[in-house]
Amino acid sequence: MKTTSLIKDTRADKIFLIFVYVFLAISLLIVLYPLIYIISASISNPHLVNSGEMWLLPKGITFEGYRTLLGNSSIWRGYLNTIYYTVLGTSINLLVTLPCAYALSREDFYGRRAFTNFMLVTMFLSGGLIPSYLLIRSLGMLNTVWALVIPGAVSVYNVVVTRTFFQSTIPREMEEAAIVDGCSDFRLFMQIVLPLSTPIIAVMALFYGVGHWNSFFSALIYLSDRSMYPLQMILREILILQDMSSNTVNNVTSEMANMLYSKQQLAQVIKYGVMIVSSLPVIIVYPFLQKYFVKGMMVGSIKG
């Protein structure tokens, strides 16, 4: 005969549960409202957006902002450049980070603590912008793709997180058994460690990939050839040109003033379209990596 014990919630439990639901609902609204507003503003009538009549759902739907934005051939060239820089840069990042972190996680690696401490120093001390620029110039990497992907080839923070994942997830006994069976260190890393490290690889790829996708400062400093500009630089140019044209209102006729006013209104909508265009690919990719992201971050941050 089975007995079932029912645990009734106390009044305090119910009050706390209501508080949790209210808090989550408010948090959801705070997160969703800006997203919905940006999407709605990017396809709404510019005048209604700037006057405040459009505050949530789109009004006077128009795609003029997107036509202006996507009709620019530089946008597509910037997209291709950014995809290339992101794929190449992320591949280099993983190629350096994973072996480095695994080596530092091995207890039989002599001097691993000294190497780790030396690397941690670089998180707090830097040569600065001018020495970095002089170094890139002396290496002949100015106006090349290598100036965007080599200086940031590895993040010490990501190395520490990945090292912690290897230490807490990969059984040392498995490594010792493979070595006894005649497995080399390289084969052990490639055929045993990496297949078991999918979560942390996905997390690192997401971290590095988003960083490369959003990066514009390195291109601003090291690139002079406009055909090599990434997407973020192209979008920055568009916003600056729109602001300059909208601010040119002195000594103009009434007809020109009306035209400039229309451009100014359109420029405000284009800004919202820029947000959507630049962030959409990352938003699309993230759901596919989410299941690995949570597991990798939780395991990789258990102990340092």
Automatic annotation (TrEMBL):
PROSITE patterns: ABC_TM1 (PS50928)
Keyword check for Ion transport: no
Residues annotated as domain ABC transmembrane type-1: 79-293
Gene3D superfamilies: MetI-like
Subcellular locations according to the entry: Cell membrane
Ranges annotated as spanning the membrane: 15-39, 83-104, 116-136, 148-166, 186-210, 269-289
Transmembrane listed as a keyword: yes
Entry keyword set: Cell membrane, Membrane, Transmembrane, Transmembrane helix, Transport
Membrane topology reported for the UniProt record: Multi-pass membrane protein
GO cellular component, one term: plasma membrane
Pfam families referenced in this protein's UniProt entry, alphabetically: BPD_transp_1 (PF00528)
Origin superkingdom: Bacteria
SUPFAM superfamilies attached to this UniProt entry: MetI-like (SSF161098)
PANTHER family given in the database record: ABC TRANSPORTER PERMEASE PROTEIN MG189-RELATED-RELATED, POLYGALACTURONAN_RHAMNOGALACTURONAN TRANSPORT SYSTEM PERMEASE PROTEIN YTCP
Protein name, UniProt field: ABC transmembrane type-1 domain-containing protein
